Amino acid sequence: MIELIVADRCTNCGTCIEVCPANVLDAGQGGLPILARVEDCQTCFMCELYCQADAIYVAPDCDRRVAVNTEEVVTSGRLGQYRKHSGWGEWADRFPNEQWLMETVFRRAGEAAARRKATSPDE
Ligand code: SF4
Ligand code: SF4
């Protein structure tokens, strides 16, 4: 679920508010997004992907909120990591978009199925 918007990084562009499919965010004072309806978050990471300022942190737990500390998240290097590894925006030429295409996961699943079939052809 979305846990954090780092105000110091946010440029108040409003993109995350627009792209959120679950209407989780509202524009607060000066345009800074506020987590208005966190319980509706689908952990889809769209807000993270579209935030060019790398100001949003979505925790991978989609069932419950997790306590996060702004300083820890900023120093951890996690901000912007999902965009980068998804080959999103300015990263398109440097990283394959495997998180969307699931290429590696499907290839490994296919290889595992082929190995299983080779060792147990009657299954
Ligand atoms: S997309 Fe990022 S920079 Fe733009 S309003 Fe949302 S948090 Fe701020
Ligand atoms: S993770 Fe998805 S549902 Fe949750 S706030 Fe971001 S865009 Fe909205």
Nutshell version of this structure?
With 123 residues, this protein is an alpha+beta fold. It has helices at residues 15-19, 46-50, 70-76, 81-85, 98-101, 103-119; strands spanning 2-5, 25-27, 33-35, 56-58. A hairpin with a 5-residue loop joins strand 2 (25-27) and strand 3.
Explain what this protein looks like in three dimensions.
- The protein is α+β, with helices and mostly antiparallel strands and 123 residues long.
- The protein has a single domain, classed as Alpha-Beta Plaits (2-Layer Sandwich), CATH 3.30.70.20.
- It has helices at residues 15-19, 46-50, 70-76, 81-85, 98-101, 103-119, and strands at 2-5, 25-27, 33-35, 56-58.
- The protein has a two-stranded antiparallel sheet.
- A hairpin with a 5-residue loop joins strand 2 and strand 3.
- The chain is elongated and about 65 Å long.
- The mean pLDDT is 89.
- The structure holds iron/sulfur cluster (2 copies).
- The site of one iron/sulfur cluster (SF4) has 14 residues, from helix 1.
State the order of secondary-structure elements, H for helix, E for strand.
Answer: EHEEHEHHHH
Helix- and strand-based class? Answer: alpha+beta
CATH class: Alpha Beta
List the uncertain runs.
none
Topology record:
Elements: E1 2-5, H1 15-19, E2 25-27, E3 33-35, H2 46-50, E4 56-58, H3 70-76, H4 81-85, H5 98-101, H6 103-119
Antiparallel strand pairs: 1-4, 2-3
One iron/sulfur cluster (SF4) binds next to helix 1.
Note the main attributes of this structure.
Alpha-Beta Plaits; 6 helices; 11% strand; binds iron/sulfur cluster; alpha+beta; 123 residues; two-stranded antiparallel ribbon
